[in-house]
From TrEMBL:
Keywords: Membrane, Repeat, Transmembrane, Transmembrane helix, Transport. It is a multi-pass membrane protein. It comes from Dimargaris cristalligena. Its main location: membrane. It is found in: Membrane. GO terms for cellular component: membrane. This is Mannose-P-dolichol utilization defect 1 protein homolog. SMART domains: CTNS (SM00679). The keyword Cytoplasm does not apply.
């Protein structure tokens, strides 16, 4: 069976000519390699599409409430830094866009959240400075004459501790406050699921242990944030005595 070109072309683009023919035209569903490849590609593009909107609820929640309560500035800065490096490393390494595309969109959304943090804290000058630093770093990391391949690989290795550290301040802030403030549940839960799926797609499509290790560790810490989101679901900013350090102190007595 041969599909019309208007249908066949996107399929070939997604999984390749051989696997499209095997799975869609010849119905050889026993070809496990093509099945894994198709699943990886499908999940990858699904995550990319999800990444284009995953932090929009967070942005909306900040703007609609006019508050950045509960959001940790250091976490956003560190996460933005690690994402800029990660996107640049993958782009210059010519890895498939389906394996890192969501990070490109998340970088843009994180930048907007960072600006909102400064604006709602009454620090517009820092928002301007942050914009200049962000754009300069993005340009430098994607220009080999500024940052060579060896230096970029070193920066990519550094994104693992940076990315992990970006979660820790937010986890501690949630624990200390006894609530998750203006954190958006959709954003937190989808970030966790996205990292878990990225472990699979990286194993299948990207032969890079640095990237794989980063996603495995990020999955663990994003899982902690997701757990806090569920645990503190009904907690408000005035409920500190029912959660967090106060509750821990009571249990220790």
């Amino acid at each position: 069976m041969r599909f019309p070109e208007v249908i066949r072309a996107p399929g070939v683009l997604l999984v390749g000519k051989h696997c499209f023919s095997e799975l869609a035209e010849n119905f050889h569903l026993g070809n496990t390699e093509c099945l894994k490849h198709a699943l990886s590609k499908g999940l990858g593009f699904g995550i990319v599409l999800g990444g284009a909107i995953v932090k929009l609820p967070q942005i909306y929640k900040i703007v609609s409430s006019g508050s950045v309560e509960g959001l940790n500035l250091l976490s956003v800065i560190l996460e933005s830094l690690s994402m800029i490096i990660f996107v640049s490393y993958n782009h210059r390494g010519q890895f498939p866009f389906s394996t890192y595309g969501e990070s490109f969109f998340l970088t843009i959304q994180n930048f907007i959240i960072l600006l909102l943090l400064f604006v709602y804290r009454g620090q517009p000058a820092r928002a301007t400075l942050g914009s200049a630093v962000f754009l300069t770093m993005l340009y430098a990391l994607n220009d080999p004459s500024w940052v060579g391949p060896a230096a970029l690989a070193t920066f990519q290795a550094a994104t693992i501790p940076i990315s992990l550290m970006s979660r820790v301040p937010q986890i501690l802030t949630n624990f200390r406050n006894g609530h998750t403030g203006q954190l958006a549940a959709f954003t937190v839960l989808n970030s966790f699921l996205g990292c878990v799926v990225r472990v699979f797609t990286t194993l299948h499509e990207v032969n890079d242990s640095l990237i794989l290790l980063g996603f495995v560790l990020a999955s663990l810490l994003n899982g902690v944030l997701a757990f806090q989101m569920v645990y503190y679901w009904n907690a408000k900013s005035g409920d500190r005595k029912s959660y967090g350090f106060d509750q821990l102190h009571k249990k220790s007595k």
